[in-house]
Amino acid sequence: MPLIDIKDVSRRFGGLAAVSHVNLSIDQGEIHCLIGPNGAGKSTLFKLIIGVYEPSAGTILFDNADITRERPYARVQRGMSIKMQAPSVFKELPVWQNLDIALQQQRSGDDLVMERQRLLELLDLAVHDDKLAGALAHGQQQWLEIGMALALRPRLLLLDEPTAGMSPEETHRTGELIKSLNRDGMTVIVVEHDMAFIRQIAQRVTVLHLGQIFADGTLEQVVSDPRVEEIYLGKAHHV
Amino acid sequence: MLSLVNGPQTSGNGRGFWLAFLAVLTVALIYPVFADSYDVGNFSYFLIWIFMALGLSLIWGYGGMLTFGQTFFFGIAGYGYGVLAIVLGGSTTTIAALILSVLVAVLAAAVLGYFMIWGRISGMFFGIVTLAATLSLAFFLGQTAGPEWHIGEARLNGFNGMKGMDPLTVGDIYIEGTILYYVLIALIVAVYLGLRMLVNSRIGNVIVAIREDPQRAEMLGYDVRKYQLLTFCIGSGLAGLSGALYTSWGQFITPSSIGLPAAAMPIIWVAFSGRSDLTATLVGSFLLLFGFQTITIYSQQAALVLMGALLLGTVMVMPQGFIFGVAQIASRRWRRLAGRDSAGDGPLRDGET
Amino acid sequence: MLPELFSLFYQFADVFAFLILASAGLAIVFGMMGVINMAHGEFIMCGAYVTVGLVNLGVPLPLAQIAAAFTAGLIGVVIEILVVRKFYKRPLDSLLATWGLSLIVTQGMLIVVGSSIRGIGTPEGSFAVGDYTFSTYRIILFACALAVLVGIYILFMRTRFGVIARATMQNAGMAQALGARTGRIYAISFGIGAGLAGLCGALYAPTMTLIPTMGATFIVESFVTVVVGGANVLLGTAPAAMLLALVRMALNASYGQIIGQIGMLFAVIAIIRILPEGLSSILARRGR
User: Fold this and answer.
1) ipTM attached to this prediction
2) How is chain B split among helix, strand and coil, in percent rounded to 5?
3) What is the domain extent for residue C152?
4) Contacts of B127 in chain C (CB under 8 A)
5) Which of residues 267-286 of C touch A (CB under 8 A)?
6) What's the whole-model pTM score?
7) Which of B1, B158, B324, C76 has the smallest number of CB atoms closer than 10 Å to its CB?
């Protein structure tokens, strides 16, 4: 049964069709990677799923409920959570308070304090918990933001370029983290460029090109498609 | 107990701070014993405005919404108290008039806030729309000199303003002079501690998160608009409380308490003091009111020129506020001199006290 | 029938001219630099005082008005260099800084020149349509408002300065990289805004009592016009003034001035609920 079902969704900006007639359904428990050249519409599709944009046409179902016109906070309350492309933590607030703002949605008291400590250790941020989030290194801000997304215990986790700015080791650890979350039942959609990372985690891959679905399947199927290589020409060394 | 009023959103969480707080409170409580009644009355007059300043600190400093409408709600509740105190018949019903007039101000804040926040008005436009509403109210009330402008027995009287309402009264006792002073001290302590609890609570966490980045806060599942409206209503309601108390204190109110330059005053107090901290706002606003009143005796215009210069100087030299900035520098110095890690003065978090 | 129609047009033109003249300077400064100049009313006051001062010295009215607009413009350039320039990265602080300035100027003026000075009276002259008589000067004000709109259009669409200014408006960093001296453009734009405010004061000086706090009479109208118009001066301001003038005229005619003023504010609040980014946003979308 699909957890998220995107039906014939389009989004236009003025004369530009950033996403057009996209059909995509993602099953419960899947790790699904969205790839494609820059400007393919990956981030726009994410923003349509979380509700930052409303589609110009089409419907989006989450767990069989029509959420096409719902505001982002309502979708988050239904069990979605997102890490956006640019790190957006609360820069002027300390690390622990960033986590609290997410954690307090579902927890309180000692339960919250314990979960905060667990996340801080999981994210390797325990020694920085009193620092202002804006003072963290770029990679650490990415981790913090993933932590805030996880603090909501989402059923569907959306990660937009989670490993940008991370070292290869950090990237690998992020991959392992995503896989362990997935083993506990979380559905994950990831936008990524890093092929090694995709190879590490992806169960299914969708290629977007010019706002449309170009290819879809396992990584092997997608990579062996000669047309995919064509649109990635010049980027072939990644594949 | 202290864990409720302490937290990351307020400065002064240590034992030293609360001892100083108690010392100041004690001085304030025994002050009327040593001062003559004229000075006590003057002191009460300063205290009346503190609610409006604290409300602005909440909306602007914590909530990130720059409202120029504090005197709009001050005026609504001020006139509301005047009208209700007359219509309800005065005496003990003035207590009802006080409560109802503040509720009317909150309702007005809910309506205006709904249109602005749901209309995605923010930043500078939030300021100028609230100011346009404020100036329009002052203009409107200035035009109500004719006898046709009355509500029941209560005449609005245009530029000359309303008068003739009873002050707050319980039974035979007028709440004036020293009694009013103690009532005001009690209200300020309650509002100050209440606001500290609010900003350090879960709701406070969300309020500052929205100030930092509204979209991020929404992505964590919060309906940003509802929290903004709540913040706006509480802060504006406090301006209303100041207004109703003001009318009761002097038994008159005129449109000049609403329009320019009155509308700029709360902005100046709070900007100068340090908008992002309730304690700095409390202390700074009181000092400014005191200084302003002292100079006004010689020349009101000169006092207002000085207030304008203070506002200009604050944003040019210390945009986070002078009282707040100086307090921060002083506490850093102190820590270095004392050569100790005064963790007690730093931010606290849940579960640590 | 015709006299009634003309009377309606006259009332509309009167409000429209007021809204355009009061808001044009504010709108240019906001559109170019993203700054709301809270001392806008004081530039209007400056224009009015210079006009009356010069007329009392024997200068002919139109000449005095032009001189007043230039004076306000020059003061605007100085203020931009001394104060406003420091706040382009902190627009909210620019609001506070200019408000502080406004207080200093109005209250300082009250100390220096006292509460009111001798006015000069509205220029005589009226004409009749049917049974109605109308003031010629009000029609001149309407013509001036139209001239200001045309002037702004020519300045921004047909001159070299305008091209550079629009480029700066779109992307200041890029314009700078291409050689535009953005600092100078901002100073000139602020000067133009202040000059238009001065012109507004100069034009209305004969029609009203002069007091140092007179700027407050204009700023509500200028604020709401800019809020309804949105960020694009060329597209937004005129339609916003037209819409608000219609609302105002209809309410004035049926319920009188007080309800007219309050009703306009309610209309503004309703409009921002529906069109958060102002009229220029839908007009810009149409054009694309």
Assistant:
1) 0.91
2) 70, 5, 25
3) 2-287
4) 36, 92, 95
5) 285
6) 0.93
7) B1
